[in-house]
Amino acid sequence: MRGVDPRVVLGLHRSRHERRLLTRALGLGVTALDTSTNYLGFRSHQVLARTAGDLLPQFTVSTKVGYFPGQNGGEHSLDPVRLHAAVEQAAEDLGREPDLVFLHNPEHSLREAAPHGRDVLAQACAALDDSVTKGLCAAWGVASWDPSPLLDLIDPTAPRPSVLMVRAGLLVGVETLDAADALIKAWDLGDRAVWGMSPFGGSADAPVWNRIDPHVFLRDNSRFSRMQAAFRTAYHLPRVGSVAVGTDDPAHLGELVDALTSEVEERIVHEYRRLLRDRSRDQPA
C-alpha cells in the first residue's frame, strides 16, 4: 500500500545557515526548515532572522527546546517553566512563532528522573501544549534520539504530541526501530506525523556507504547513486513521512530531492528488519 508522498525537511544541525542554501531549497520545493535552540552555539534563531528573515515566511519552521546554555556548553532540562520560556524566546528571536516546537531528547533528563519519569514527561508535554494554547507556536512534538526510555513513561491522560521525530535509515538498530514503532502506535500517529532524522548516521561520506549497496531496496535503482538509495530507504526504517537532513551543499540537497522519485521495495525492507531482529536475538547477552 502506498504511503504519503515523502518530504524533505532541511535540517540546520551543523549548518552554516547560509542564505544561498535556503534560496536553493525554496527553488527545489523544500519549504520546511528544522533547527533548535542549541544549534550554532545557541545562536541559530538569531542568525536565521538576521540572514534570511525575509525568506522565513516562505518556510514552515520547526525548532526544539530542552537544551540550555550551561557551564560545559549546554545542559538539559524538562522543567516546565524553562521550556515555556524557551518557546517564548524562540518566537522572539525568530521574529515569528514557530510552526512546530519539539521537546528535544527528553530521554536525556528522564534517565535521572526515576522513579518520577512519568510525571516529569507529562509536565513537560503539558508545558508545550500550553505554549500552543497561548499562541507561541502552532503545534508541538517530541524529537528523540533514543526513544526506548519513553515507552514505559507515557501517561495516556497527558497531552499527546502532533509529531514524533526519530532516527531513520539503514544504520539505525532494530531496538530503536521497534521503540519508534511502539511510540507511533501509543500516540496514534500517522505516517505524515512521523519524521526521520540523521538518515546517513551523521555523514553521507562515512566509509560505511562504500561498503554497502542500498540499491537493493529500490525498485528502479539504475539511475540513483548509493547516497540517494540510502536516503530514500530511510523513509521506511521506520516508516516516516518526512526526513530532516542537513547539508550546506545545494547540489547535494538537489540530489536528495531527486531521490524522492524512486520507489522502495517494501518486501526487501521487511526482510531486512527481520534479519536485524534475528541477528539481535543471536547476540550474546
Main sheet summary: 8 strands, parallel, barrel
Helix-residue proportion: 25-40%
Count of the domains: 1
Mean pLDDT: 94
Work out the helix count.
Answer: 11
Strand tally, please? 10
User: What is the CATH topology assignment?
Assistant: TIM Barrel
CATH class: Alpha Beta
Q: Radius of gyration over alpha carbons?
A: 19 Å
- Biggest sheet strand order reads 1-2-3-6-7-8-9-10
Q: Quote the distance from N terminus to C terminus.
A: 37 Å
SS-derived structural category: alpha/beta
Q: Which H/E pattern describes the elements?
A: EHEHHEEEHEHHEEHEHHEHH
Summarize the structure.
The protein is of the alpha/beta class.
Describe this structure in words.
- By secondary structure, the chain is α/β, with parallel strands linked by helices.
- It has a single domain (7-282), classed as Alpha-Beta Barrel (TIM Barrel).
- The protein is 39% helix and 15% strand.
- The protein contains eleven helices and ten strands.
- It has helices spanning 19-27, 39-42, 44-52, 80-94, 107-110, 117-133, 174-186, 208-211, 226-233, 250-259, 266-282, and strands spanning 7-11, 32-34, 60-65, 67-68, 75-76, 100-104, 140-144, 163-167, 194-197, 242-246.
- The strands form two sheets. It has an eight-stranded parallel beta barrel, surrounded by four helices. The protein has a two-stranded antiparallel sheet with strand order 4-5.
- Helix 7 links the parallel strand 8 and strand 9 (194-197).
- Helix 9 (226-233) packs across helix 10.
- The longest helix is centred in the middle third of the chain and has 17 residues, at 117-133.
- The chain is globular.
- The two termini are 37 Å apart.
- The mean pLDDT is 94.
